[in-house]
Amino acid sequence: MEKSEVNVGLLGWGTVGKSVSKILLSQRKNILKKSGVNLNLTKVAKRTMPVEGQDVDLPNNCLTTDPSEVVNGSGIDVVVELIGGVDTAFDLVTQAIENGKHVVTANKALLAERGAELFQLANQKGVFLGFEASTAGGIPIIKALRESFSGNQIQSMHGIINGTCNYILTQMHEQMTSFNVALASAQEKGYAEADPTLDIEGIDAAHKLSILSSLAYSTYLPFDKIYVEGITKITDKEIQYAKEFGYVIKLLAIAKMTDSGIEARVHPSLIPERSILANVSDAFNGVYLVGDAVGPTLFYGQGAGGMPTASAVVADIIEAGQTAVGGLVNLKTGGWTKEESSEVEISSIAEVKTRYYMRLVVRDQPSVLAEIGQVLGDCQISIAAVTQKDSQACDTVSLVIITHKALEKNMDLAREKLSKLEVVEDDFTVIRIEELDFDNT
Ligand code: HSE
Fold first, then answer.
1. Are residues 151 and 126 part of one domain?
2. Which residues pair with 358 in a beta bridge?
3. pTM for the complete prediction?
4. Ligand 1 atom having least distance to the Cα of 199
5. Would you say residue 372 lies in a domain?
C-alpha cells in the first residue's frame, strides 16, 4: 500500500453514513489532490444486512453486521462512528482508540457525556479524535474554535444550534401557527425525530453547547453543568407579543466568560428582530461568536441532514488520514502549484447570467417605455418589474427596471443600444442582482 493510502471503516449506515460513503467514493481523486491522502472505504458495519440493493454502490465485501471488523480490523486506519447513543458508541470508540486507530465521530451526546475520558485515551494513544460533525452539522465551527481562534479569548457565543426548534419557532413567528402544528410540520419534513424530546427540551442544543464551550474555554463543561430549558412552553401568544415589541423568540445556546465564571445556558430568548441571529430561519443554524482579538464573527449553515453532516465528517476523515500517513501531506497545496494545477476554463464575465437593476433617466413622453422594452427584448432580456420615479426635472423621470436573468454580453449590447436612444437622457446605472438563493441557481 502506498504511504498516501488510508483505509476507512464506518460504524453505522443511516442517512449520514450513506452520504459519507457517496462523498468518499465520488470525490476520491479530488480529495487526494487536495489533501494528499487516498481514502479507501474498506468496511461498513450496519445493524442488519440489506435484503435488497442499496442506493450507494459499495465496494465488494464492504458491508458487515459485525462492528468488530471495523474497530479491530487490522487494515483499518480510521474508524468513523455514526451510530449515535452513548454506551455502545463509547465501547466501540474506546476499542478503536485502544487499537491505535484514529476516530471520527458525529456523536454530540457521547462527547457531552463521556468526552473527557475519550480525549484522555486518545491523547495517551496518540490518535486523532475528530468531531466536527457533532455540532452545527456542516458549519466548520469546531475547526474555527480549535484552530482559527486559538489566539483569542472567547468573550461570548450565542448559537442557534438545534434546527428542529428553529424550524418550529420560525413557523410560529411567520405563520402564526401553534407549537403543536409547527412540531407536526417539523416531523413531516423529517427535521424532528418521531420522539422529539431531545430537540424540543433543549437537550440536543445543550449537548452541542457542552462541546463548543469546552473548546472555547479549554475546560471540560459537561452536559449536566449546563442550564437547560426547552421551547415547549412557548405559545403563539408569546410569539405575537414579542413580535409587537420588535423581538423574535429563538432557542439560544449561550456561553459567556463573566467575572463570576463561565455562563453556559440553553433557553428560549427574545432577540431584537433586526439582529443577525433573528434572521437565521427554518432548520438553519447560526453561531455568533465574539473573540477579544477578532471581534464579532458569524457562522451560518445547515446544522443537520445527510450531506451537510457528511461534509464535516469527511473533512475529519481527511485530517485523520493525514495524521495516519505522517502529516507530511499538509505540505500539499491543493492545486496552487504549477504541477498540481488542473487545466480549468475560467469563464468570461460576458457569460455570467444574473438579474439586473437598471435606472435610466428618460424623457417623460409617449412610447418611451415601448422603445426601451423593444431594445431589451431584442437583446433577449426579459423585464421582471418596472417603476417610474418622480420627475428629476420638469420633463424627465427615473425609470427603474428589474430584469429576469440575462447574459452579461446581452446586457452590454442593450446598454450600447439604449445609450443611443434619443429618449434616454443621461448615462444610466446597471447593477447586478445576486439573489443569494439557497440552491445558487
Ligand atoms: N436534531 C438535531 C437538530 C439534528 O434538529 O438540529 C442535528 O444535530
1. no
2. 401, 430
3. 0.84
4. 1
5. yes
Task: Report the amino acid identity of residue 105.
Answer: T
103 and 21 inside one domain: yes
Distances from the Cα of 140 to the Cα of 122, 133, 215, 252, angstroms: 22, 8, 13, 19
DSSP letters, 369-419, are HHHHHHHHHHTT--EEEEEEEEEEETTEEEEEEEE-SEEHHHHHHHHHHHH
Question: Same structural domain for residues 161 and 285?
Answer: yes
* Residue 59: per-residue pLDDT: 86
434 CA distance to ligand 1 centroid (A)?
Answer: 30
| In-domain check, residue 345 | no
Give the count of domains, the chain.
3
- Is the Cβ–Cβ distance between 268 and 251 less than 8 Å? yes
Quote the domain boundaries for residue 73: 5-137+306-324
Active site residues: 208
Pocket of ligand 1 (CB under 6 A): 137, 162-164, 191, 199, 204, 303-304
Low-confidence ranges of the chain (pLDDT < 70): 1-2, 50-54, 193-194, 327-342, 390-393, 436-441
- Are 358 and 275 in the same domain? no
Whether residues 179 and 120 fall in one domain = no
Q: Which amino acid residue places its CA nearest to atom 4 of ligand 1?
A: 304
- Note the pLDDT tens digit of each residue in 134-171: 999 999 999 999 999 999 999 999 999 999 999 999 99
Classify residue 344: in a domain, yes or no.
no
For the CA of 309, the nearest atom of ligand 1 = 7
